[in-house]
């Protein structure tokens, strides 16, 4: 829109590296204009009254005005309407920021710790930020991050993408972005995490998607992929005695097509089976019991490491 | 300008509350709300100087003027923590209610004292005890968590000093609760004959709303802080994920107090501003009921918006949306107040003594603080700004620009009543110019830094943020200088100021109908009230 270019303040924002960044900046420009107008009305009005009604003699009389219902209604109602509009606009952007698209080109498990990030790809490639490795992602395609933390809360903030998500220990959160162009983008930690909080920076390097595909498959895998490791663990822990992988009903629900499906629970609630749901169901199976199934699964809390859980989740995701 | 609507007699003797009993012991054991108010004044001012020292240290470090950093990262983090904890728990929260509120509330109601004078004195000593415990954490075992004590950093990854600081804040919470309780009972039971609830001054409405928040929300903080102590010493596992706890639960508990606490800080400031605007416009307040009820509305809504501190914490998208819409509702009563104050000036006869300048400064800074609050209340926008310098700038505009401007205005306004002397108006004006200018130079660039992406609580930053940080630091020294001038003006006023008349501003509320300074029990004869509090006809 043309009016937003009237606001030089948008230039204070970092580069717009995603489509959503543009939308955020449009709302930002609107908020700046609306604030300037409100400021001029309020403080301009105040200044005008101060000049016009300055006391000039000792015995000067003030008017006696106690209230005015119509004016008071207007200045309550109009701000309310404007603020509801801003709320709605912000909500639309928020939902886009929070909902990754169906087809994601890269999924990366990101683990924060004081004061570094580890990123692990689906095929087992793993990088550690203190070695100055950037996080490689495809340009022009969506990347989804699954975040967690080993110690305290950290937050993954990419100013150029206008997005941010806390990495919370004991929990999986997610973040997605789609950089339009190849380039390097800085990532800050924005949740205070101790001595080197301000030094916990990495770069995201977006490369053309063909290059990304070549890079992703080129080098020999450092290890088995998380899904492969998860498959081994699935066998070791005898998961198959209760959970089929071909869709048939055994003691517990099948793993086939589980990820992303809607689950109905014995207490009548529903949830979508995402990473966090799987994590919880593996560790504390009694938290949500799927409808028509018995609460038979043992707790694995304390028996599986975060990495084990992530591997199992990747394996379950692969059973389609 | 005379007390046409109130019937009082002035005490024309030299006997007043300041010389009613002498010696340090008579102060330390006093039950007089006015003396207790002044004791808070001295205490809070001292703590403010300490908190300000840390602020200047932080800013000086961030200016990067020297080749070597001024502070090392751990020292910086401690400075940041002490600055926040002192300013929030020991200056801004008790500042207006415990100091100005204690001094003014009973006189404005036409009462002899607060309802429970002994409890009032006890509240003061509990506050001192809490501040001493918190301060001991500075000496013995230093804390670097930030004033928000987020888990699991505070429980698992830092020194045990946290326990002392948390225990200090816990103790000061009792002082806050007891003061609030005292004010509520005083307001309900000790009003002068004829003073109905719609004739109490707006300062009282603000203190009353604040008191309700204090007694409802502070216990939540107390429990939360105890849980941190329990987690750290006993490992109960409420917040620790390794023990099945949830670190985000702490944030819910913490903000369930600390968001309403923002209004504990700002509502009393709004009360002061309501008094100043009407007194220096010589005109009755516009929309008395709207201002009074909007205080209560803000107090009520303040309990429902805590989740807006957690839009990126991993709470559900739906929760974020719900907290966003409720947060927007706070904007309405806030806008009502601003419009009413401005309308009060319309067709008034306005003068510009130092207290009025601070009130106008409040309006200017609070408007910017309020408007930028809308940016942060909007979910899609907040994701970018969350935990950046934009937030730092926003809450300093609201809490410091708002509360400290009102506090300074209130001090200069009620000073003649407190000490029976006037402050130098020139001194007050110079102080105002320095604080107001310095404040904008310090904090406005921080909005830009936030938009550029600079996160808060950073020991070090990218080169592109350097210039704005240096401007900000220069501004912080102007603020420091402004408060120094203010302090000198106040001390000069106490000892050398010219004698004040009983009602130097020609104001209408009851405290101006007794002598300056007032007698021990405020009024020689209990006043009778026959009209609203701002009847400038």
TrEMBL record, chain A:
Its cofactor is Cu cation. It catalyses: 4 Fe(II)-[cytochrome c] + O2 + 8 H(+)(in) = 4 Fe(III)-[cytochrome c] + 2 H2O + 4 H(+)(out). Binds a copper A center. Residues 4-101 form the Cytochrome oxidase subunit II transmembrane region profile domain. InterPro entries: CcO_II, CcO_II-like_C, Copper_CuA, Cupredoxin, Cyt_c-like_dom, Cyt_c-like_dom_sf, Cyt_C_IC, Cyt_c_oxidase_su2. Its EC number is 7.1.1.9. Keywords: Copper, Electron transport, Heme, Iron, Membrane, Metal-binding, Oxidoreductase, Respiratory chain, Translocase, Transmembrane, Transmembrane helix, Transport. GO terms for biological process: ATP synthesis coupled electron transport. CDD domains: CuRO_HCO_II_like_2 (cd13915). The chain crosses the membrane at residues 27-51, 72-91. Residues 103-218 form the Cytochrome oxidase subunit II copper A binding domain. Its main location: membrane. The keyword RNA-binding does not apply. One of its GO terms (molecular function) is heme binding. Subunits I and II form the functional core of the enzyme complex. Electrons originating in cytochrome c are transferred via heme a and Cu(A) to the binuclear center formed by heme a3 and Cu(B). Belongs to the cytochrome c oxidase subunit 2 family. This is Cytochrome c oxidase subunit 2. It comes from Leptospira biflexa serovar Patoc (strain Patoc 1 / ATCC 23582 / Paris).
From TrEMBL, chain B:
GO terms for biological process: aerobic respiration; electron transport coupled proton transport; respiratory electron transport chain. It comes from the Bacteria. One of its GO terms (cellular component) is membrane. InterPro entries: Cyt_c_oxase-like_su1_dom, Cyt_c_oxase-like_su1_sf, Cyt_C_Oxase_1, Cyt_c_Oxase_su1_BS. The chain crosses the membrane at residues 38-62, 82-107, 119-141, 161-185, 205-229, 249-273, 285-306, 318-336, 357-377, 389-415, 427-454, 474-495. PANTHER family: CYTOCHROME C OXIDASE SUBUNIT 1. This is Cytochrome c oxidase polypeptide I (Cytochrome aa3 subunit 1 Oxidase aa(3) subunit 1) putative membrane protein. It comes from Leptospira biflexa serovar Patoc (strain Patoc 1 / ATCC 23582 / Paris).
